[in-house]
Specification:
The protein has 5 helices and no strands. With about 130 residues, the chain is an all-alpha fold.
């Protein structure tokens, strides 16, 4: 795979601007629980889909979005795991580490499940 500096730079700019905007919202909104919603803003996903669509095609952008869907399901598992572990272990660092492992495993399982279901649906159509 060839490294495209322009592509990398645009991803950095789009993703960075989205993350910075979310940080500003986090600082301005008084309710930190509500502001936490913006901590989950899919900045990286938006940048990845934009770049895949711009430099590739809609099919590539859709593949990125599908993977992002699995990752976001994994994020839900990650947050629930982190919350549970922090409440029961009382150690935020360890809890975060455990939660990230759960994020990866559940995201991987979700993408495998989604791809399998899409393949079966595709086979039925043929």
């Amino acid at each position: 795979m060839k490294l495209d500096i322009r592509d990398l730079g645009l991803r950095f700019i789009f993703g960075g601007l989205a993350v910075a905007a979310c940080y500003v919202v986090l600082q301005l909104v008084p309710s930190k629980s509500f502001a936490g919603i913006f901590a989950a803003f899919p900045a990286v996903m938006a940048a990845a889909v934009i770049m895949a669509g711009h430099f590739g095609n809609s099919e590539q952008a859709a593949d990125i979005a599908l993977g992002a869907s699995a990752g976001m399901l994994g994020c839900t598992i990650c947050v629930l795991t982190a919350t549970f572990c922090m409440q029961h272990l009382g150690k935020w660092g360890l809890s975060l580490g455990i939660a990230l492992v759960f994020w990866f495993v559940s995201s991987y399982a979700a993408i495998m499940l989604m791809q399998g279901l899409l393949e079966k649906r595709k086979e039925k159509r043929q």
